[in-house]
Design a protein that fits this description.
Length: about 150
Amino acid sequence: MARQSSVMPTPDKLEQRIGVSLVVLFCCTAAFKVLHIAFQPNLGAYADPIFTSLSAQRIAMLGVLLEIGAVDLWFLAPSKAAKWLGFLTVAGIFAAYKFTHFVLGIQTPCGCLGILTDWMPVSKPVSEAFTLVLPTYAALWSFAFINRHCHCSA
């Protein structure tokens, strides 16, 4: 039987694991948004509370495109810093959206998790906290790894 090591993973392995977790996270939330759009066709009738000229359906579609774009960049970008920049950009956009939601005191729940919140018995505060933790997780790790790979001289 092989002996398990209690040594922390190398920085490269940690980076790979965090990257894979973000790929899975972004793909899952994009899939839940697609299901939300598919199973709630009247979503197009509601205006988004922040971008009032766009429907909630279009905002969900934009979210899907951003998430899939970040995942594509993870696989296709030539440099490691560019891979993380995709996640950081999308996380920043989502965090800014959530922050605006909070500042304006909008009471309607955010559709950031798509249909998942309809399927699971999760309270509104837990759902709202989760949609704030996810972009924060993505942004902090992305920023850390961009810093690791960006060797800019001051």
